[in-house]
Write a structure and sequence with these properties.
mainly alpha, 10 helices, single chain, MetI-like fold, elongated, 243 residues
Length: 243
């Protein structure tokens, strides 16, 4: 509740500053926040929920894919020295490549549909999540592993019962940072081959010079990011209360 209150306080301060700047500039390009909020509520009674649903679905699928691939891979790299020797060079060589630069290639290979959009966001999430998980697994106390092995535990059991719970904080922390970047990529990805999503809604409003709906879309995207952060924070508090 404290973080929600802090977020609402920051939002209120932003709206007040926005109103003052709009008064000073007095231009249609920067409408008053009251008009934007009114448009936002009108949109929620119209077609805006469909755009939110499409963007949310793309983010959810990308997060799920990043965890399904990145979690076991990160644990394997961090826990096993032999696997790390083979997989780490590939991971650290690919990580610095700007993912936005790969968008044309991905769209040529997979088309302009949902697959290319999900892959783009997946790439943004996959690398930091995997690297952070590998680092967390590598930093764990190896004496615990040796003790478990002394009692007859196999590598798979150690990875499942010790390493997996131990890297969950790294997963959540990494997702909190990466989701902000993923939402930025979502905006670009939704400008091609679709008529649904907040990115499309924002750019379509801009092309029509509908500045009020343009800012309503931007505000919705910001609130969506804030909601995702609160969800991850809630999961963090419940799952890793031992921290």
């Amino acid at each position: 509740m404290k973080k929600i209150g802090q977020g609402l306080g920051i939002l209120l301060f932003t709206l007040v500053a926005w109103h003052i700047i709009a008064m000073i500039l007095s231009t249609p390009v920067l409408p008053y926040p009251a008009l934007v909020i009114r448009s936002l509520f009108s949109g929620l009674a119209g077609g805006l929920p469909l755009h939110i649903a499409y963007s949310s679905m793309r983010i959810a699928l990308s997060v799920l894919a990043a965890l399904v691939v990145g979690l076991p891979l990160g644990i394997a790299i961090g826990y096993s020295k032999s696997l790390s020797r083979w997989l780490s060079p590939f991971l650290y060589l690919s990580y610095p490549i700007p993912k936005l630069a790969l968008m044309p290639v991905i769209m040529l290979l997979f088309g302009l549909g949902e697959t290319s959009k999900t892959i783009m966001i997946f790439l943004i999430l996959f690398f930091p999540v995997t690297v952070d998980i590998a680092g967390a697994a590598r930093a764990m106390n190896k004496e615990v592993f040796q003790t478990m092995k002394a009692f007859g535990a196999c590598d798979m059991a150690i990875a499942r019962c010790i390493v997996l719970p131990g890297v969950i904080p790294a997963v959540l922390d990494s997702l909190k940072v990466s989701l902000g970047i993923a939402l930025s990529i979502l905006f670009f990805a939704e400008n091609s081959g679709t008529q649904h999503g907040l990115g499309y809604f924002i750019m379509n409003s801009w092309q029509k010079m509908d500045y009020i709906n343009l800012y309503a879309g931007i505000l919705t995207l910001a609130l969506m990011g804030f909601a995702l952060f609160l969800i991850l924070d809630f999961i963090d508090d419940k799952v890793t209360a031992w921290r």
